[in-house]
Amino acid sequence: MEILNKVAYSFMLVLVIALMSSTTTRPVSGLFIGKTYVYIINNLGPNIKFNYHCKSADDDLGERSLNFNEEWHWKFQTNWFDTTLFWCNMWWTDTNGRQVSGSTDIYKAKRDKTKCYRRCRYYVKADGIYRYNSVMYRLDLLYTWPQ
Predict the structure, then answer these.
(1) Structural domain boundaries enclosing 134
(2) What is the three-class DSSP state of 122?
(3) Phi/psi of residue 131, each to 5°?
(4) Same domain membership, residue 50 and residue 115
(5) Distance between CA atoms of 139 and 136, rounded to whole angstroms?
(6) Whole-angstrom Cα distance, residue 131 to residue 118?
(7) Segment 18-71, tens digit of pLDDT
């Protein structure tokens, strides 16, 4: 009977370790949470196309563009240590024909998980990029375009 208890204990330990390292779900406070969604919305103005190339250490999301008021999103699972990071190179041409470009961390798990939870919305505007803060119900300036 003691051998059976040791086998059962070992099996449970392996199962817990496997669940903790899974890329599809992760336990937090005894609960399993799902994917995080990041949305990018072009609010630059009519006839202004927003271009960007986002990636993480593991995923290259490719070069993309959005017309005014269009949005695009992707989803992912944050890692157990909340070090998940996506950054984007971005560029657009203003109404005066001036090229505006920059690069920023668009999603940092430790920074963003408490501000936007699992649905993070980023609004691209002429003065910068804003993240919707779902705790305070407001837009927070996250990034200002270089002059």
Answers:
(1) 34-144
(2) strand
(3) -105, 135
(4) yes
(5) 9
(6) 13
(7) 444 443 333 343 344 689 999 999 999 999 999 999 999 999 999 999 999 999
